[in-house]
Write a structure and sequence with these properties.
Low-confidence stretches: none
Number of helices: 19
Number of strands: 0
Distance between the termini: 70 Å
Mean pLDDT: 92
Strand content: under 5%
Shape: elongated
Helix content: over 70%
Largest sheet: none
């Protein structure tokens, strides 16, 4: 209706109100996961995926909210085969890619849109928990790079930035392809280091931001499990940043030491070891124990 009567909102407004009402009524399905099989048979997942491309951001947000509730991990575990079919249908329909397209239409400065993004990330996390292969979908369908950019975005800290950093760390821990993708077309190591540099001389302002900082450190540690990324870490002066964090004695200090452990471990860490000794000289023990 919106496409047909684009110049006359009155002609499609009523139908969109009815659509929104229908979506709200579908929330009852989350209380009866035994009906998920019927929902899949009726083409429910395909309809949800179609609605993710709706021009009305309110409809888009309502759809994401419904999906977030339907994919709650506790509910999925009750649904057994029906839940597995639901998740598989959403994955086959490339829901991750659909979310990425939807994000382009949403303005996170608007609370409802920011909530829609947060709910979408929750769906992704739920699906990874229930179907670990979803981690590869996130990499292959480019959500991983979006998450990396969002987690490392300059400016004000917010809940979606924290959620993005959590998922970046999770994907790097689960997926070898994510570790490789990190430096294929962007320098993800440098992005993580720049995001962490904020905490070189300043502590996070609250517990949520502290968690965000730790997520970034966890992501960096996971990335360094791939030998090639250790070379990027060296080239991007990651050792120098970790050294400064050790010297400043802020909340980042302990995690910086953990990163150094990952960067210098094993034969692949030899170059980092040599460079770190060069940077520190004889002050290493002093830094650690004073």
């Amino acid at each position: 209706m919106r496409t047909k009567h684009a110049e006359d909102p009155k002609k499609f407004m009523e139908s969109e109100v009815e659509l929104d009402t229908a979506i709200q009524e579908m929330h009852v399905l989350a209380t009866q996961p035994d009906l998920y099989d019927c929902f899949v048979e009726a083409g429910g997942p395909s309809l949800m995926l179609t609605l993710l491309s709706h021009e009305n951001s309110d409809i888009l947000g309502a759809t994401v909210n419904l999906l977030q509730e339907l994919t709650d991990v506790d509910i999925l575990n009750e649904g057994e085969e029906g839940a597995a079919r639901l998740i598989e249908s959403l994955a086959t329909g490339r829901i991750v890619e659909s979310f990425l397209t939807a994000f382009e239409k949403l303005d996170e400065k608007v609370k409802d849109d920011a909530d829609a993004v947060h709910n979408a990330l929750s769906v992704v996390e739920n699906m990874i928990d229930f179907r670990p292969e979803t981690a590869e979908d996130c990499v292959n369908q480019n959500l991983f790079i979006w998450l990396l950019s969002r987690a490392c975005q300059k400016g004000q800290f917010d809940a979606n930035k924290m959620y993005a950093s959590e998922l970046v760390a999770l994907l790097l821990q689960l997926s070898e392809s994510a570790k490789r993708k990190l430096t294929e077309k962007v320098d993800g190591i440098d992005m993580l280091l720049r995001a962490l540099a904020v905490y070189k001389r300043h502590d996070p302002e609250n517990l949520d931001e502290r968690e965000h900082m730790e997520n970034l450190f966890d992501a960096l540690c996971a990335a360094l499990m791939l030998p090639a990324n250790r070379g990027k870490f060296l080239d991007d002066e990651g050792l120098q940043l970790m050294n400064l964090m050790l010297r400043e004695r802020k909340q980042s200090r302990e995690s910086a030491l953990k990163v150094l452990d990952h960067a210098t471990t094993g034969p692949e860490g030899k170059d980092n070891c040599n460079k770190f000794v060069e940077i520190l000289g004889s002050s290493f023990s002093y830094l650690l124990f004073n």
